Amino acid sequence: MKCPYCGDEMIRGYLMSSRDITFAVDNLTKVFRIKKSDDLELSKGSGGIPHCEAYRCSSCKKILIDYANR
């Protein structure tokens, strides 16, 4: 995949976490957070490590996540 920012080839990989991977628009200053209805769940893999497919650009230091097929 070509980087939409610089045009270089991106490296396919995965974002992994010990907890669910969620995109949220609120402030992350709290230690404990209850999921909200407008949160976007990005993690896959029940019973395994929460992960989502991503592409990394080594040139411009960006990570791209396509969540269409999550």
From TrEMBL:
* Span of domain DUF6487: 3-68
Superkingdom, natural source = Bacteria
InterPro entries of this UniProt entry? DUF6487
Q: What is this protein called?
A: DUF6487 domain-containing protein
Which source organism?
[Ruminococcus] torques
Higher taxonomy? Bacteria, Bacillati, Bacillota, Clostridia, Lachnospirales
